[in-house]
Amino acid sequence: MSAAPTECLLRLYDEHHELEDYQKGVTRWCPGCGDNAILTAVQRLCRTENLDPVKTVFVSGIGCSSRLPHYMNTYGFHGIHGRALPIAEGVKMSRPELTVFVNMGDGDCCSIGAAHWVHAIRYNMDLTVMLHDNQIYGLTKKQASPTSPIGLKSNTTPKGAYLEALNPLTVSLGVTNVSFVAQVVDWIPEVLYDVLHAAFLHKGLSFVRILQRCPEWLPNMLDPWVQDPTRVKLLYHEDGIKVSPSVAKVYTTTEEHDPSNMNRAREIASEVDPVPVGILYRNDDVPCYEDLRRDPTLRTPQFVKGGLEAEFDKFTIWPEGEEH
Amino acid sequence: MPASASPSTQKRKKSAKTNGQLDAKKKVVQLKEHIVEIISDSGEGAQRCGQSLGAIAARMGYGIWTIEIIPAEIKPPARSVAGASGNRIRIGSKYVTNGGDETDLVIAFNEQVLLGRVRAKELKQGATILLEDMWRDHKDPAVSKSYIETYDRLVESGYKVYEIPMERECHKLLSDPRRGKNMFALGILCSIYSLDLEIAKSQIALTFGKKAASVIETNVKLLEAGFSWAEENLEFKYEIPVKRPTEPYIVVNGNTAIALGVLASGMDICAMYPITPATSASHYLSDAFAKVGGIVHQAEDEIAACAFAIGASYAGKCSVTITSGPGYSLKQEGIGLAVMTEIPLVVVNVQRGGPSTGQPTKVEQGDLMCTIFGSHGDAPKVVIAPATIEDCFYTMITARKIAEMFRMVVVILSDANLATSQQPFPRPQFLETWLAPPPDQSAIPEGSKPYDWDPVTGLSRRHIPGQPGGMHTLTGIAHDSNSHVAYDPDINEQGLKARSMKLAAVQKTLKPPPVFGATQGDLLIVGWGSTKGAIEEAVESLREEGHKVSSLNLTFIQPMPSGIKEILSGFKQVMTIENTYSDKLEYDLIDEENRRYAPLALLMRSRFLVDIDCYTESQGQPIKPSTIRRVALEKLQEK
After folding, report:
1. What mean pLDDT comes out for the span A119-134?
2. Nearest CA to B270 among B308, B240, B219, B230?
3. What three-state secondary structure class fits B409?
4. What is the distance between the alpha carbons of residues B148 and B131, in angstroms, rounded to a whole number?
5. Buried b vs exposed e over A262-274: b needs ≥16 C-beta within 10 Å?
6. Residue in A with minimal Cα distance to B436
7. What percent of chain A has pLDDT over 70?
8. Which residue range is the domain that position A212 belongs to?
9. Could you check whether B2-239 and B251-434 share the same CATH topology?
10. 20 to 30 A Cα–Cα from B421, which one of A119, B249, B340, B632?
């Protein structure tokens, strides 16, 4: 180590960030909206990891969930409905050194952007992806979403939703190259934070489905699970998340689940009641698309010129005597 | 050569000489230019033969314009009328600016693919046809009957048909002549056009460079055999005078030129989804990026490709997405986002026939309106239409610069004509200023906002992730200068104005386009994009005959440069010629009030308040100079 200790300290001091460094503005979500819990957990995560706000980007789609970047004092890109993932992939490919988060709603991810969701999992770029799943379209005022439970009455399904809900966990686990799938609920902040933290630390695309309450359109829908802790099943493991004593006291339904066990993960993914919470699957060995594609060459003008001239040569007709 | 010698019908006017010796020395006919086609079933190598012929001619200094003849299917059934695959090469003493009129001479590997070309009216009246004769005695009587009937009909219609024993001759050198006939045909053409056989041989070495020496040797033998056969058996021979080139040229098609332009522009991410006829640009880039640095990302769909490019551009490096009409339709929402968030983006639309799936491999200029006005709301963007293969290259460099300098979307409107045509242009001299600088990572000055719109130009400085002090959230929602969501009526209008003023600022940098011909006269023909060469050729010939006709080609269509109104005022009549659809006044239901004009005519009528007529053609092929001549002469008589 050549740097003097004082210099190191100075650097640490310079780069240290408080929670406030990541906060921006006052949220305009409805009181009691689960998005607030997610925002708090994310800001806490940024502070814990001391992320440089200048090199952090939050990309979102459209909907209540996608307002999140506006409340982060980092770089943000509030995109268009369904396209958060391909935008985030472009950012990551162009600038792999940036930390990129993605926030989407259930309409965003599982409906209009479903193709991107499937392929994003397959690309496995190093992104932390949050699915804010409140099982309803909020901003457009209560239409059934793909994750709405069958029978749910909404403005587009006045007699109740016709189809069984799409399960984002089983879909994600079915995609080639899946490397991290987790589920959390907005009403257990500690576990929400722990899972998001693990997702962030995972190298690859970490997909976190967050069951989120919508106090405006579905005020009581998740109450049975919120009010009865036994209907939440905590997944814990040495290689997953560990449950703190205070959480363990309340949430007594648990399962020790090894996140490398894909078969069991798929079984758990299909469970609805009790609702599984924790890391379902993790595989650190799946290559990231940006690493497969990244070109380590420094593109100096001289390098580009050399390559370009060689390409020109392929198509050049030289005058006689000048042939190269 | 018994088969070609056996006169199965009295109608055969001409045939290849059969005694192996020509009676007297052949007379060499001098030509200014010629259009030649080589067509076969798909997979028989006519395309390679044609490409090689074009390259040989170009290396000798001829002006050339080559056009690929591509069937819509990968492997259409053998001997089918719709299955013609090959190449059409216009060779001229002078610089050739377009594909020209009908074909003068064709080599066909079977009579069915030839029929397809005849029915498409691609052959000149009385054109010379060299027809593979192996079908005459084919063991399937249906095949031989079809051949003989077609042969007779062609002769009857006045074509000069020569039956040539390619299969038999090649059999002397090869066990499977199907895999070498094309080089034999090339040899025939080298003899017919008095091309330099040494250059032809070195071209074969280049073409097959990656293969074994024995492959090159066999192909050279076939070339020589074809050459000797033609020297000995054909009664005609041409020569097109040429000056050997004095400077290096590159010969590529428009798609490759666009891809080379991407490399030269410093853009290093191309996001795309496969679509005809744009994809070959990305094929080439996928290979070339490995040497110059950069990646082609094949996205899951067109929407994702556009969004990926936007994300990459947002992160600091301007990116490009390359597509064709149907893909362009899908990209419109992404383009609107880039316009709203002022992210630089280059989009290439290699137009094909539309609407919907339309004619994927055919030529059309039908996307002008959806490009300029596409995406909902007011979404101003720059639209540039390259007119030549050379333009395709340099336009990409310009596009990247405009996109970054003005924080705008720049759309390049190429088309299937440019995409697959080859035309030599002077080898570009590399300039460091072509390249993009690395993303700016300097600190943002205090007080600077992400949309510090200049009240006059609408321009503002971009904040790129990684720049200290520049943190903000871009949004496609109406926003104020701080990028905060704002529904305030004045702020909305302010943003709209700023984005529109940027277009005006671009416009102020443009020079008036040059008029081809005199600046005053009876008729001005206006075109855009790839029709330039054909229009100018027609105008030149009309001017030589004393007609007061000039033409104007617009490269920048949005914004349109200043000075055009003044140009229009110099002419008694103005009309556009466009490769798309418009209503013609002779249609029963059409009158002055309900006529749907061609896009450029409509744009110019509204902008300049001048009564501009239009002629359009949407037959899936470039408009021919002879058609433009006829239309112009008719228009001149109207006055």
Report:
1. 98
2. B308
3. strand
4. 11
5. eebbbebbeeeeb
6. A301
7. 94
8. 5-289
9. no
10. B632
Nearest-neighbour CA in chain A from B337: distance (Å): 7
Whole-angstrom Cα distance, residue B315 to residue A91?
Answer: 5
Q: Check B300 against A78: CB less than 8 A apart.
A: no
B64 phi and psi, to 5 degrees? -135, 155
Q: What is the pLDDT of residues B375-390, one digit of tens each?
A: 999 999 999 999 999 9
Q: What percent of chain A has pLDDT over 90?
A: 90
Distance from C-alpha of B284 to C-alpha of A281, rounded to nearest angstrom = 39
Lowest mean pLDDT among A156-170, A272-286, A310-324, B336-350: A310-324
CATH number of the domain residue A90 falls in = 3.40.50.970
Q: What is the CA radius of gyration of chain B?
A: 27
Residue with tokens 């200043």: B562
What local confidence, expressed as pLDDT, does residue A324 receive?
Answer: 52
Q: What per-residue confidence (pLDDT) applies to B8?
A: 39
In total, how many domains does chain A have? 1
Position B276 scores a pLDDT of: 94
Residue-wise pLDDT for A81-90, tens only, equals: 999 999 999 9
| Strand partners of residue A181 | A207, A281
What is the mean pLDDT of the segment spanning A19-42? 96
Torsion angle in degrees (nearest 10) through CA of A76, A78, A83, A88: 0
Instruction: State the greatest distance between any 2 C-alpha atoms of chain B, in Å, as a whole number.
Output: 92
Q: Do B465 and A98 make contact, defined as CB atoms within 8 angstroms?
A: yes
Q: Which of B295, B430, B435 sits opposite A293 (nearest CB)?
A: B295
Is there a contact between A90 and B309 if contact means CB atoms under 8 Å apart?
Answer: yes
Strands (E), B342-403: 345-351, 382-384
In a mutational test of the B interface, the residue from A52, A62, A312, A313 whose CB has the highest number of chain B CBs within 10 Å is A312
Q: How far is B530 from chain A (nearest CA, A)?
A: 22
The amino acid that residue B491 corresponds to is I
Two tokens, residue B37 = 């086609």
Buried b (16+ CB within 10 A) or exposed e, B266-305: bbbbbbbbebbbbbbbbebbbebbebbbbbbbebbbbbbb
User: Which pLDDT does position A294 carry in this prediction?
Assistant: 85
Q: Is the pLDDT of residue A248 over 80?
A: yes
A83, A308, A315 ranked by CB distance to B307: nearest: A83
Domain ranges of chain B: 2-239, 251-434, 440-509, 515-638
Query: Does the B2-239 domain belong in CATH 3.30.428.70?
Result: no
User: Would you say residue A295 has pLDDT above 80?
Assistant: no
Q: Which two tokens stand for residue B147?
A: 């051949």
Q: Which CATH architecture has domain B251-434?
A: 3-Layer(aba) Sandwich (3.40)
What is the Cα–Cα distance from A93 to B436, expressed in whole angstroms? 17
pLDDT at position B176, please?
Answer: 87
Q: Which tens digits make up the pLDDT trace of A141-185?
A: 999 999 999 999 999 999 999 999 999 999 999 999 999 999 999
Q: Is the ipTM of this complex over 0.90?
A: yes
Mutation site, A70, A87, A91, A297, interface B, largest B CB count within 10 A: A87
Q: Widest CA span of chain A, in angstroms?
A: 88
Question: What's the rounded mean pLDDT across residues A192-198?
Answer: 98
pLDDT score for B14: 47
Q: What residue type is A112 in one-letter code?
A: I
Q: Is residue A123 domain-resident?
A: yes
Low-confidence ranges of chain B (pLDDT < 50): 1-15, 17-20
Q: From 3.30.70.1350, 3.30.1370.10, 3.30.70.330, 3.40.50.920, which CATH number describes the B515-638 domain?
A: 3.40.50.920
Provide the 8-state DSSP code for B353: B
Which tokens is B409 given? 């979307």
Look at residue A320 and tell me if it is in a domain.
no
Which backbone phi and psi does A217 adopt, to 5 degrees?
-100, -30
Q: CA of B265: which chain A residue's CA is closest?
A: A304
Contact at CB, B435 and A293, closer than 8 angstroms: no
**How many CB atoms are closer than 10 A to CB B3?**
16
